[in-house]
Amino acid sequence: MIRRSSLAAFLAVTLLAPPSAWAQATSVRDMLVGAWSFVSVVSQSDDGRRGEPFGASPKGIIIFTPDGHFSLFQSTAELPRLAANDRARATPEEAMTVVRDSIAYYGSYTVNEAAREFSLTLVGSTYTNLMGSAPQRRIITTLTPTDLAFSNPRTPSGVTLNTVWRRASPQ
């Protein structure tokens, strides 16, 4: 009888536990896996200036796979259509706008569970200057079943980026 009551008590506590308790029981890596939709990014420079590099309503996605791969795309809400309808024949102005207002990269990631951080090792990028550098550290500031926020503490341009994502729902 003691065993049944102990099991019943355990199940009651476990099933009635708040979602935060579930999050504590799940690894950071497991919670990252999946597709996340881009909500916002705010840049901050050392002098306190803030900005929104992709505007107020950016588009994008980041996908983390269970086997340690990731892919990211970010852009402003409205990238221009190319007049020639051929990306190899974009005008200098069109090409500059696309490069300035979007970025994509992919590679592998590792998670530091204790520090609630992950590091990205890039394999490919539309901004090739990022290639071949040390893994890029991201500090997780929020991670719930529906929300992810992290900080990129030092970009090549010398700013800190604070990025917010929402779990992508199937279409």
Q: What is the C-level CATH assignment?
A: Mainly Beta
How many domains comprise the coordinates? 1
Total number of β-strand segments?
9
**What percent of the residues sit in helical stretches (DSSP H or I)?**
10-25%
Order of helices and strands: HHHEEEEHEEEEE
Calculate the mean pLDDT score and round it.
86
Level-2 CATH architecture: Beta Barrel
Low-pLDDT parts are 1-19
Characterize the overall form. globular
Task: List the strand order in the largest sheet.
Answer: 1-3-4-5-6-7-8-9
Query: What would the CATH topology be?
Result: Lipocalin
- Beta-strand percentage range: 35-45%
Q: Figure out the total of helices.
A: 4
Q: Name the structural class.
A: alpha+beta
Main sheet attributes: strand count, strand direction, barrel closure: 8 strands, antiparallel, barrel
Q: How would you describe the overall organization of this protein?
A:
The protein is an alpha+beta fold. The protein has a single domain, classed as Lipocalin (Beta Barrel). Helices cover about 20% and strands about 40% of the residues. The chain has an eight-stranded antiparallel barrel. Strand 8 and strand 9 form a beta hairpin. Mean pLDDT is about 85; it is low at about 1-20.
Question: What would you say about this model in short?
Answer:
Helix content is 22%, strand content 40%.
Keywords for this structure?
eight-stranded antiparallel β-barrel; disordered N terminus; Lipocalin; alpha+beta; 171 residues; 22% helix
